[in-house]
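Good day; I would like, with your permission, to put a structural problem before you. The record follows directly beneath this note:
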Amino acid sequence: MQSQATSPLEYIDSLPEDRKKVMTALRHEILKNLPDGFSEVIGYGMLGYVVPHSLYPAGYHCDPKLPLPFMNLASQKNFIAIYHMGIYINKDLLDWFTAEYARQSKVKLDMGKSCIRFKKTDQIPICLIGELASKITPAQWIEMYERLKNER
């Protein structure tokens, strides 16, 4: 479900009470750990963490008017979702995350290519999500993105 919020705080405030606490905690942990240079925005109706045009003027290849997306956080109808483009592109990062998740959680990982889904809010490894957010700098993300884009 896409939010019509225009700011991160408006997004959080629009959530049902049972989601506000965990989404606030996740947002705080991501912002605390995200390397300098990323910006927090509303993108695709979710909280988004992007490389701004000031660092990557080319923007997102699908729509260059948009900044380069990196990570999103969303309260969906049946789950909380973390979308992390780095785990989609970087196998070493994916392997690290899945191993750490297995070590830290007793709940089976529910994951797509870049989407990590949590159906129960009390089972989200918030600190692990913060650590995941810290693993790639904007410069590294631009380099990975450019390499992938040029391979196609």
